[in-house]
Amino acid sequence: MNFDDTPDEAAYREQVRRYVTEHREELARIGDGSRRDGDLTAARRSQAVMYDGGYVGVTWPKEVGGQGGTPMQQAIVDQELARAGVPMHIGIIGLGMCGPTVVHHGSDDQKQRYLSRLLRGDDIWCQLFSEPASGSDLAGLRTRAVRNDDGTWRVNGQKVWTTLAHVADYGILLTRTDADVAKHRGLTMFVVDMKAPGVTVRPLRQMSGHSEFNEVFFDDVVIQDSERLGDVNDGWRVALTTLMSERMSLGGGGTEVGMGIAPVVEHVRERIGSLPADRQALVRQDLGRAYVQTLGIRYNGYRQLSAISKGQMPGPEASAGKLAGTKAARTVADIAVRLLGDEAVYAACADGTSAFQDSQAGLPGMAIAGGTDEILRNVLGERVLGLPAEPRADKGMTFNQSLATTGGAQ
Amino acid sequence: MNFDLSDEQRALAAAARDFFTSACSPADSRRALDEGTPVAPGRARLADTGFAAITVPESAGGGGGSVLDLAVVAQEAGRVLAGPSLVSVARAAVLLADDDARLASLADGSVGYAVVDGTAPALDAATADQFLALQGDALVCGTGVVTVGAPIDPTRGLGQVELGVAVELASDARLRWERAERVAQVILAAEGLGAAERAVEIGVAYAKERQAFGRAIGSYQAVKHALVEAFVGVEQLRSLVWWAAWAADEAPEELPLAAAAVKGLSAEVLESASETLIQVHGGIGFTWEHDAHLYWRRAKVDRLLLGDEAAAYDQVARLVLAAPVPAREQEAAR
């Protein structure tokens, strides 16, 4: 047992670190707003600089613009970028989810046209899966794709919670193409041009006040059949590739959700001395418990990283990381906000800072986005502990029958 | 990065599981409550296997192994609520560091050692012959008079000790004492890990089998999610036990934080796993005949041994506030 890089890993890390250091001024900085503002030039440049160095799409095949490297190498790149205070790439959804789906299910033509631009940040992608009436129950989605006489597809419906849709050039779009089979048997996946006529993107404002995702409307949007990913009505299998890639893109494990505990420890260090002794004891209890939670997550992450280092892939147990991470992050934010004293009731402090308040308002959403706590517990309970699945009232029904039975509006 | 057990440690764990599952079971804990029978497998059998003396140097007849090796074994002991505790041996092995004669008696089981923290009930005092204590900064060893209270968990052999005739083993032993206490916390947590892991297994098995309202109760989210929460806690505890044991062997500067962290977490994880175990079983879960309460008893006692979780969390906070924890090379990506 050790926490050291293997010689190969150490050499690769050194090489990445040198590159990041040399190019630091061209790379984005956490908190510089490069991912949120309309002007994405800085964010795209940051990704392009890393791509030009050979550090984006590290595990992707060489023939599509990747490096043919190992998941461990990708983890090292991610670690070094985090160490240097570089935010996640603007193309994160494309890199983590859409791109791998095109790699697995796209035609040669699609791979040719899309993948290197996606890797370089020239195009930004989004993932159009969730809908107002189907979030956790993704296979119940209602956006319809109907085949036209000329072989093209006409799409109508609405997607929601779509990160980056407002700036995206392309998206992968899961649609219903047959409503008279079981719900997950009648789905088909497409690449959609987000600038196509009939695509309308509207920002959704979250409880934090930020607008990090969107709702997307499709009104008679025409998609060429050549933009289909996988076979007609095989979209569920294609979507599973996407969701599995999502898990692997979180590889490296131990990632702290939210702001992380280090700035909160610093904040406690500054403030605790001004509190009465009994309050100090309470703060230490809270901080100690929260710190142990983050250690548990971090060292669980090291176990996953060790598995990746040996060439294994993270399994469904990786879901535990997000579950525990969200819980810890909420405790951490709570400690930080309470310590603001009288200012804890305001959305920002008198000096204009609001990092702790922002974190507090952002975290309830973390327990929902990317798999609710409840769905993650189901995954762990069923796939890891082997407990029987929740009964499904729509089992054995076609999608149309289930709509009629559950009273859902067509 | 290789944060994983070695093949040898996995083999050791398998051998330890074979031994502990054949040598004792939670039923022994119940029998001890009912009839006052001695704890199983007992000191002599533990000594025969060599498991207890893993961290005793080979020169004194021990295994010359690491704290991590012992933690791997302690986890297996915890699964079946074995007694006496490997904690007592591990702690004594540190305290008796340069005393080959006493170490030999520890390793061969001819003398039972318990470690006394002031007036607090001492682990395995009920069956001990010799008692180790800190007086000022001096480490002393001697006989004692033990007052055993009504046990919640009979496998822990707790009793208050009044030291009798004692000899001084070392005059300036504070650092050694602190290390021994931390190693003890790590091994206690390893036993807690085994007990909690087993509690979750028993609960999961029952939830798959027990039917209510026409289906297995484990299909209900209320039951499933409770077991998952316990499982997630166990996996985090496993990671911290490994880290803390590794730190005891390889990174003494990390041990104070790791030992306090794992002590606090093990208290919480075992307590909640054992309570979940009872709850999942419904009526049978709080009967005397079922094993669930024996794990619960272990949890309710262990959480208070070697300091409670409040003391552990306070210590963690004091340590991280006093000095930033250095980042590892592979500090996880944000």
The Cα radius of gyration of chain A reads 23 Å
Estimated helix fraction of chain B? 55-70%
Major β-sheet annotation of chain B: 4 strands, mixed
How are strands sequenced across the largest beta sheet of chain A?
1-4-5-8
If classified by CATH, what would the architecture of the domain at 176-322 in chain B be? Answer: Up-down Bundle
The ordered H/E elements of chain B are HHHHHHEEEEHEEHHHH
* Structural class category of chain B: alpha+beta
Give a quick precis of the structure.
The complex is a heterodimer of chains A (410) and B (334). Chain A has 410 residues and is α+β, with helices and mostly antiparallel strands. Chain A contains 12 helices and 8 strands.
Which key terms come to mind for this protein?
heterodimer; A: 410 residues; alpha+beta; Butyryl-CoA Dehydrogenase, subunit A, domain 2; Butyryl-CoA Dehydrogenase, subunit A, domain 3; 3 domains; B: alpha+beta; four-stranded mixed β-sheet; two-stranded antiparallel sheet; globular
What do you see in this structure?
The complex is a heterodimer of chains A (410) and B (334). Chain A is α+β, with helices and mostly antiparallel strands. Chain A is built from twelve helices and eight strands. Chain A is globular. Chain B has 334 residues and is an alpha+beta fold. In chain B, the strands form two sheets. Chain B has a four-stranded mixed beta sheet, with helices on one face. Chain B has a two-stranded antiparallel sheet with strand order 5-6. The mean pLDDT of chain B is 96. At the A-B interface, helix 3, helix 7, helix 8, helix 9 and helix 11 of A face helix 7, strand 6, helix 8, helix 9 and helix 11 of B.
Topology (SSEs and partners):
The complex is a heterodimer of chains A (410) and B (334).
Chain A: H1 7-22, H2 41-52, H3 71-83, H4 92-105, H5 108-120, E1 125-128, E2 144-147, E3 153-163, E4 170-176, E5 187-193, E6 199-204, E7 213-223, E8 228-229, H6 235-249, H7 262-271, H8 277-309, H9 319-338, H10 355-366, H11 373-384, H12 399-406
Parallel strand pairs in A: 1-4
Antiparallel strand pairs in A: 2-3, 3-7, 4-5, 5-8, 6-7
Chain B: H1 7-23, H2 26-35, H3 42-49, H4 67-79, H5 86-95, H6 100-107, E1 113-116, E2 130-135, E3 138-147, E4 160-170, H7 174-209, E5 211-212, E6 215-216, H8 221-250, H9 255-281, H10 292-302, H11 309-322
Parallel strand pairs in B: 1-2
Antiparallel strand pairs in B: 2-3, 3-4, 5-6
Helix pairs in contact in B: 1-4, 4-7, 4-8, 5-7, 7-8, 7-9, 7-10, 8-9, 9-10, 9-11
